[in-house]
Write a structure and sequence with these properties.
The protein is built from eleven helices and nine strands. With about 290 residues, it is α/β, with parallel strands linked by helices. Strands 4-3-2-5-6-9-7 form a seven-stranded mixed sheet. α4 (about 85-100) links the parallel β3 (about 75-80) and β4.
Length: about 290
């Protein structure tokens, strides 16, 4: 009989491969499936996330359950959102086998994280995930918008994406993801992850991004209006604001909005903070 008071057993390389073989699973690039096979890595992710037993954690793309089990060592509750029907169906059994004492604190939701409209149970406080690389930014932004109760999070993404999310104004990689993430949170790089902790090993490096929720800029403009200005500003990186914002309003209205916001019309999007974009949005004539 298993000891239900014990903590979860974590998955090693042999466990992951055995589960994959049982499910006849061939990881697909289309869904960005690279499974973590190293217990030290998932423990490190959980440690860096700062999750405690007071937290309700949302995990996206749990896959075979490597990170899920590590989260259940410390979190009060874990809700995993999985789009793959086969993986979602197998996960409860894996949790019952490897973490019998924590199984009642776990729930899986079969859904596309980019289209999910609610998360069951108590309001989630943290997001911790190995995000599918091909949709990492839209998933992160969607969940930050959908779940205002999220206080903090740690996500693993492609290294270049991690750089972009955490970039400051003036950086070469500062762009749309940087500004939109900054609307919701203070974002920072939280380390690098090697390729050999995954199966199959990806052909890109991975990075950790940590964030802490903060209030969005105080503005009379809506988030959608501010984001429309951000999208326009970076649509043509080399062009100045006065030119690119004409896709949103006539030239004289753009000039007036920039002057009112105290922004140089010859500046480029990569020099502006999220608060600057909000001031520009306030001055444009939205219809």
């Amino acid at each position: 009989m298993s000891d239900t008071s014990a903590g979860p057993r974590l998955l090693g390389p042999a466990d992951v491969r055995a589960l994959a073989a049982e499910l006849d699973l061939r990881p697909t690039k289309q869904r960005g499936q690279n499974f973590v096979i190293d217990a030290n890595t998932v423990r490190r992710i959980v440690r860096e996330s700062g999750v405690t037993d007071h937290d309700v954690v949302v995990e996206v793309g749990p896959g075979l359950g490597s990170l899920t089990l590590a989260l259940l060592e410390v979190a009060g509750r874990v809700v995993a959102i999985e789009v793959d029907e086969v993986l979602a169906a197998r996960l409860p059994e894996t949790i019952a086998t490897y973490a019998p004492g924590q199984a009642d604190r776990f729930e899986v939701v079969l859904a596309d994280a980019m289209r999910v409209t609610e998360v069951p149970g108590p309001a989630p406080t943290a997001l911790v995930a190995n995000l599918p690389y091909n949709v990492s930014v839209p998933v992160l932004l969607h969940l930050l918008m959908l779940l205002p109760s999220l206080e903090r999070g740690l996500v693993m993404v492609q290294s270049e994406v991690a750089d972009r999310l955490a970039a400051a104004p003036g950086s070469k990689v500062y762009g749309v993801p940087s500004v939109k993430a900054a609307w919701y949170a203070d974002v920072r790089r939280a380390g690098a992850i090697g390729r050999n902790v995954f199966w199959p090993a990806p052909n890109v490096d991975s990075g950790l991004v940590a964030w802490t929720r903060r209030e969005p800029p105080t503005t009379t403009a809506t988030r959608e209006q501010v984001f429309a200005v951000v999208d326009a500003a970076f649509a043509h990186r080399r062009k100045v604001l006065r030119g690119v914002l004409r896709s949103l309003a006539p030239a004289e209205d753009v000039d007036a909005a920039l002057e009112r916001a105290g922004i140089d019309p010859l500046a480029r999007g990569e020099s502006l903070r999220v608060e600057d974009f909000a001031r520009i949005a306030e001055g444009l004539p939205w219809r």
